[in-house]
Amino acid sequence: MENRYCVIMCGGVGSRFWPFSKASAPKQFIDFFGTGRSLLQMSFDRIASIIPVSNIIAITNERYAPLVREQLPELADGQILLEPDRRNTAPCVAWAAYHVRALNPDAMMLVAPSDHLILKEEEFRKRVVHGFDFLAAHKDALLTLGICPNRPETGYGYIQIDKENMVDDTITKVKTFTEKPNIELAKVFVDSGEFLWNSGIFMWRAEAIINAFHDHCPDIAMRFDGGKEVFGTDKETQFINTEFSACPNISIDYAIMEKSANVFVQSADIGWSDLGSWGAYYEKSPKAEHRNVMHNCRTVINNCRGNIFAAKKEKLIVASGLDNFIVADNDDILLICPLSEEQKIKQYVNEVKANFGDKYL
Amino acid sequence: MENRYCVIMCGGVGSRFWPFSKASAPKQFIDFFGTGRSLLQMSFDRIASIIPVSNIIAITNERYAPLVREQLPELADGQILLEPDRRNTAPCVAWAAYHVRALNPDAMMLVAPSDHLILKEEEFRKRVVHGFDFLAAHKDALLTLGICPNRPETGYGYIQIDKENMVDDTITKVKTFTEKPNIELAKVFVDSGEFLWNSGIFMWRAEAIINAFHDHCPDIAMRFDGGKEVFGTDKETQFINTEFSACPNISIDYAIMEKSANVFVQSADIGWSDLGSWGAYYEKSPKAEHRNVMHNCRTVINNCRGNIFAAKKEKLIVASGLDNFIVADNDDILLICPLSEEQKIKQYVNEVKANFGDKYL
Fold this sequence. Notes:
Two copies of one chain form a homodimer.
Chain A: E1 4-9, H1 39-47, E2 56-61, H2 65-71, E3 80-83, H3 89-103, E4 108-113, E5 117-118, H4 121-137, E6 142-147, E7 158-166, E8 171-178, H5 183-192, E9 195-205, H6 206-216, H7 218-225, H8 236-243, H9 252-257, E10 263-268, E11 272-273, H10 278-284, E12 293-295, E13 298-302, E14 308-310, E15 316-320, E16 325-330, E17 333-338, H11 345-356
Parallel strand pairs in A: 1-2, 1-4, 2-3, 6-10, 12-14, 13-15, 14-16
Antiparallel strand pairs in A: 4-9, 5-11, 6-9, 7-8, 7-9, 8-10, 16-17
């Protein structure tokens, strides 16, 4: 157990879920399903029985430090890494790896986004434990969790497995990573049985991912090598505040996973959704009459089908004549738009910014 | 001037404008057009130059006393009559008449609802002054203002004029009162040139309307006769608190106007709207791009036509894909429904009441 670490990434902005997810309080900090726990807290709860709490690290943007401290009081200050700038996932993962390796040269890391939904938690834990066992025997492997697809989703990345190279009944060598496909291609992927969804959940030894950075993204590796001796010390923050912003802004998939020859995928059926959009939220939510989804609000609904009604606390929504809309009310913002336009929400947020500044972001 | 009185009725609930008009703050108290003055205040402003301020009386439900005092500080406490109960307009008018007659036996009264819009104020004042002149010569007459119709509106009552009995070029004997017609009948009415809209604005001598109550609604007249000597004294409130609730719940139209033989109408072109509904409000409001009406709110609008977007203060509404809807957000209530369903709002309010009690009314 003592070599198991978890790095929970919780610095994202979640703009596709605006106005519920705002830059001032992104979706991972929201109690999305009214269960009393935020997505971040659910991420913590999910792993706290298989990874020592003292080995759990949250990495986030420094503006969210108060939210993380409030929501995860179990973490000591040293377990919260604060990024001074947004640099996508590659610099984030690299820092976490250097940090964890300094604490424990034999550390194995689970890297987990905090804004996803995982409904089958026991199965998830089984896959994680199986992954740690695999890493103990395959010290250089980079392992990702791949989700068995249940539909030709065009919003996800796909991983093609290499059927000739099965390690066991769930873990396989990866053949290719594929970015979001069009619908025709997505159908081919799903029908082939050779593709899994890329969950963005990774496992590796800290040493292995650092080596991979040296091989495929030396820019980042060299920069962090420059501060090798400060990780895990009280000089780490100052080093990061000086160096982090100079890192390239790229994703771990693009920087490492798509380039490395040593990548494996474990297929997992864990009730996963990236909750990347209102549409994904709609799919995962229990339906009221006429396929409406009510989030947190009191409603009087007539002649409405297939909508999301989302509000906060005591808000009453009275609606009539809406089909397949998002109605999301968050204090000083009301969004009403067709569910089919969810991809345009980012554009609306940009219009809001252009017209009214940062007030509503 | 000293015989001219005005009774501003401001006790209505305005439920058709929910959620902007709520029982706790009905529409007459709202600054509907963002001009800085509520409809009640506009009603006061409109007449203050032709009727002495000390002769202006507001009659309302006792729960709205604080709102009236706040909005019309020009009125002394004795100029605000507080109904202990809702009893429609007949008991309201009767009380006001007994009260005013006690103050001045020669009093002539303008009875004005406070929740209407009158755009041509100068023309309105001309009609009122002309009405007072008429009453001075026709001491028993009951005079109503009739609005020249510009469309076959089915939401209003109509007044048929008696063309054989013209008093002058604007005042005519009334032939019949007609309740809200269906659309076919409304078209016939408008085409005939013999019908005016019933504005609910009345003028008469206090003595004349009290006599009419004796003739056509003795139940109410007898009850108020029983307190003849208390009106205008400090015992009036106690008398009203005992007797008012026993009055029948009926309108002045039904109790008196439709029955009296001595009713006249003055036709008036005063830019009038009863603002009885969101539709009426839409018609009267300036239109933004794509015929949308924005009330008080910040908006980012795409692909929306012919809607009302109404909110309070700093609320931002981002909307897409709505045509001809009412979107009205008032603190803890959001209403979204087609403008064509505005007649159903009362029903929605009833559903709200059934589900959530009085909290949102």
